[in-house]
Amino acid sequence: MRRRRGNPVLVILIGLTLTVILVYIFSSIFMGSERKARNIVHEFYEYESIADFGRSWELLHTDMQAKFGRGAYVQDRAHVFNGHFGADTFTFDISGAKERKNWRMEKEGETFSSVYEFEVKQDYHGKYGHFVFVQYVYVVREDGEWRILWDYKR
After folding, report:
1. Residue 60 has what DSSP assignment?
2. In this structure, are residues 78 and 53 in contact, taking their beta carbons and an 8 Å threshold?
3. In this predicted model, what pLDDT tens digit does every residue of 84-106 receive, in sequence order?
4. Maximum Cα–Cα distance for the chain, whole Å?
5. Which of 136, 151, 147, 154 is nearest to 65 (CA)?
6. How far is residue 151's CA from residue 109's CA, in Å, rounded to a whole number?
7. What stretch of H or E contains 150?
8. What letter does residue 31 receive in the DSSP assignment?
């Protein structure tokens, strides 16, 4: 009596599904907080570099969003970077990754027990020539999501 083998397509699909699940679990467990925080900074500046300020605003912490509404943010960013500097886009480089304990965005603001600090260099070529901006960006978890903060202490 012959034994019937399983459907090879089904076996391949099950194997691929298991592989995807294992990769997802592995990356969730072993992809550290620092790397996830860096990815949010990268995503934020990707949106900014293509003038998609509405999507970048979505990645800001609620304390930042409270400083300026979405419409004001979009209008102001476009006005300053595209209007004044005459730069349609920019490239950027993210460096550093320092974990800061008990950090505040403002002198009297909320204390965040742990944030990641990154240095972002934005490289513009506009109507006034070539220039580079350096901004320090802070990333914290808010309601299970990584969010962007800036330093307003003086």
Report:
1. B
2. yes
3. 777 777 899 999 899 999 999 99
4. 84
5. 147
6. 11
7. strand 145-150
8. S
Strand pairing category for 90-104 and 111-126: antiparallel
pLDDT one-digit tens code per residue, 64-75 = 999 999 999 999
Contacts of 128 (CB under 8 A, 6+ apart): 85, 86
Write down the pLDDT at residue 27: 62
Distance in angstroms (rounded) separating the CA atoms of residues 115 and 149: 9
Query: Could you give the CA distance from residue 114 to residue 102 in angstroms, rounded to a whole number?
Result: 6
What is the DSSP secondary-structure string of 87-149? -S-EEEEEEEEEEEEEEESSTTSPEEEEEEEEEEEEEEEETTEEEEEEEEEEEEEETTEEEEE
Using an 8 Å Cβ cutoff, are 87 and 81 in contact? yes
Instruction: Give the separation between CA 5 and CA 74, rounded to whole angstroms.
Output: 60
| Residue 28 predicted with pLDDT over 80 | no
**Full set of structural domains in the chain with CATH:** 31-150 (3.10.450.100)
